[in-house]
Specification:
Elements (H helix, E strand, L loop, with lengths): L21 H16 L3 H14 L5 H17 L3 H18 L3 H12 L8 H15 L4 H14 L5 H17 L3 H17 L3 H17 L3 H17 L6 H14 L3 H18 L5 H17 L3 H11 L3 H4 L3 H17 L3 H17 L6
Helix pairs in contact: 1-2, 2-3, 3-4, 4-5, 4-6, 5-6, 6-7, 6-8, 7-8, 8-9, 9-10, 10-11, 11-12, 12-13, 12-14, 13-14, 14-15, 14-17, 15-17, 17-18
Length: about 375
């Protein structure tokens, strides 16, 4: 079976702290009870401000419920900047965590009606940045319009958010096949991020340029952009993100039929990962091993395939909880059985992998 991984964008990982400390929880309960009893709106707003300070934001329902109460009272008191600030902060929870795009859009549109009363450039720009996020993926034209307005409204002190607006706008331009505009926005975003010393997100933007070239079949240019990105990562001491770039280059060399450079980049990536030790990004290591076993399966080299499949067993526990891991692990098992001439088992694993990939919408599997 031919295995294709989702594009190894860069391998950044994010951690969400899910638990409030006991002290914070105590403070939250104290202010929540006081806010419930308070009847005067100005005092209630002050208490709710403390509720939002101490609320466990990983509890999306509790956080959004209290935030919406705060927003309604701030609106009633004509505290429009406080209203906007709370709406901007809770937007991600509603739109992404609770997956309620319409509710998120309705919230930000309500705040937008008070735009003439809002003077802070961060709040003004953020209204449109969030609004763009509400349309992203569903209505790219509307998303671009809002990201462009955000760029206009943010002030000099808001440079990091300007960078985000260019970055997000680049993604939407890609969706509309405006590839020249997309590359230009990625370049502007990367310059902003680099000037702000946010080297990880500068790498995101640089990688975006390579992705645009690659999806249009300009594989040589995509590889060159990743080589620039690798130099950038070395210069800024971010070696943990280099293996993902090497894996992407290996994939493109494979498409070009350059088997030698495909293997060279895959082996260089796993060498870097081994050198990094605990600093290595687990997902990147998993994807690298998947690519290696797939490569040696296609080259009909059973001993090398078996070696890298054995290394994959490190990730076997994750397959019980993560369908991305499981689908690719089943495919690797299919390749192993095929090389062992156990065709019945190979077909069985193949079908299981395909079924799971379809279930979780792995389009490039």
């Amino acid at each position: 079976m031919k295995t294709k991984l989702l594009t190894l964008f860069i391998g950044f990982t994010y951690t969400v702290v899910a638990q409030n400390s006991p002290d914070r929880q105590t403070q939250f309960e104290k202010y929540r009870l006081l806010a419930e009893k308070e009847t005067a709106a100005p005092a209630k707003l002050i208490l709710l401000d403390s509720v939002l300070k101490y609320v466990d934001k990983s509890d999306a329902e509790v956080y959004s419920t209290n935030a919406f109460t705060y927003i309604d009272i701030a609106e009633e008191l004509k505290e429009y900047e406080k209203m906007a600030n709370a709406a901007i902060k809770v937007f991600y929870t509603v739109n992404i965590v609770q997956n309620d795009n319409q509710k998120a859009l309705k919230l930000i549109d309500k705040v937008k009606t008070y735009e003439p009363f809002i003077k802070d450039s961060f709040l003004l720009g953020s209204i449109y940045l969030k609004r763009g996020g509400a349309f992203a993926g569903n209505n790219p034209n509307e998303a671009i319009k809002n990201y462009s307005r955000a760029i206009e409204l943010f002030g000099r002190k808001d440079s990091i958010f300007v960078a985000d607006a260019y970055f997000f706008r680049a993604q939407q331009k890609t969706d509309l096949s405006d590839f020249i505009g997309s590359i230009k926005d990625y370049e502007i975003a990367s310059t902003y991020y680099e000037n702000l010393k946010d080297f990880e997100y500068a790498t995101h933007a640089l990688t975006g340029i390579a992705v645009v070239y690659g999806m249009n079949g300009f594989l040589d240019k995509a590889i060159k952009e990743r080589e620039k990105c690798i130099s950038f990562l070395k210069k800024n001491n971010l070696p943990e993100f280099i293996p993902a770039q090497l894996c992407n280059n290996a994939t493109d060399y494979g498409k070009m039929g350059n088997i030698a450079l495909q293997e060279k980049n895959l082996l260089e990536a796993i060498g870097q990962i081994n050198k990094l030790g605990e600093k290595a990004i687990p997902m990147t290591k998993f994807e690298n091993l998947i690519l290696l076993q797939s490569f040696y399966h296609k080259q009909n080299m059973p001993e090398k395939h078996a070696y890298y499949f054995l290394l994959l067993k490190e990730f076997e526990p994750q397959t019980a909880e993560n369908n991305f891991y499981k689908a690719h692990y089943l495919d690797a098992e299919s390749n192993l059985f095929a090389l062992q001439n156990k065709l019945g088992k190979a077909i069985e694993r193949n079908l299981q992998a395909l079924e799971l990939a379809k279930k979780i919408n792995l389009k490039e599997f």
